Amino acid sequence: MLLAKVTAGTRQYLKLSLRIWLGLVLLSAWAWALTARIAEVAISPGSVFRVEAVPPGRSSAGGKPSFYGVSIDATRLTPIEYVWDLLNPNVSFLPGLESGASISQGVLTLSQQAEIAAAVAAAKYLRLPVRAIPGVVVKGVLPLSPARRELAVGDLIVSVNGVRVTSLAALDAAVALHPGLPFTTLAFLRYNGAGRLLNRSATVRVAFNAGHLGLVVSPAIGYSIPFAVKLSTLDTQLNTASLSEALAVVGEYRKFPGARKGGFRVAAIGSVTTSGQVLPVIGIRQRVVAARDGGFSYLLVPKMQVTAARGASFGRIRIVGVSSLAQAVEAVAGAAGGRNPVGVVR
Predict the structure, then answer these.
(1) Is the pTM of this model over 0.85?
(2) What distance in Å separates the CA atoms of residue 168 and residue 150, rounded to the nearest whole number?
(3) In this structure, how many other beta carbons lie within 10 angstroms of the beta carbon of residue 290?
(4) Reported confidence tier of residue 175, pLDDT bands at 50, 70, 90
(5) What is the three-class DSSP state of 180?
(6) Is 45 helix (H, G, I), strand (E, B) or coil?
(7) Distance of CA 184 to CAs 155, 161, 207, 209, 211, Å?
(8) Which of 93, 122, 131, 186 could form a disulfide with 249 if both were Cys (CB 3.0 to 4.6 A apart)?
């Protein structure tokens, strides 16, 4: 009888322990599902925003469309959110992306570089003077560098001891070319707050230090253009409005006949190189959905992504595929004047 009681008590204890253990496991799993973050990033439709060019007000009031960029949202999800978003056709997933927030102050961010490329492409299209300046950009200054008080992160070194430098090898060779000199003379350019290179290069002399400058550098190209570039503070690998920015700059210098001021809205998706080529972007479907939900009926997209854009438009947006800035300007001019723009997908 005593043995039977002990056995029954042991069973009850084991059952209680098992329930507690299962409860802890379920609680831990629930907490993980609510708070953990998966490795992938969820891409969803963002918003449509107006792009303002600098300097404003050059074109007449009768021929200035309004240009808009389209963004997407990138979110690190919890496991529960991930399962839920798997059912959302407007959400796609990408491997985890590095954020640009840790980029040192002074180095142009990814979005800033895209904006400068758009401005250079627009200036070239308008036949304005554009000067490309090759050099090496300073990405870091070591504590013991002889140039630590003279150079800053983001400076573009263009010559050393009077010798032009356009690569790391050229920089090292120029520094070591005159080992007997007590000083190394550096000529550099610096971007100001408006994204423009200073009008003239600055020259500094630093101690030779056995040929070691103590700088972290990489090849780069600076551009001198005749107008300022309005730089944004947001940096991301996903969002770029460079096509709409290039069009906005063009719109400040030329007329679009038939377009009333503010009465013709154009949304544009795409990245523009300094040569004016329009490149595809990440999240084309989500961007089209954002433009569609924003009430736009006319949208420019990279020509290589026309098919994907058409699938997301559901026939509610006129999709125009362009492969260059010149084609984009032609399409806007045609649509503003009531003509059939190039590359229209019907």
Answers:
(1) no
(2) 20
(3) 24
(4) confident
(5) coil
(6) strand
(7) 16, 6, 6, 9, 8
(8) 122
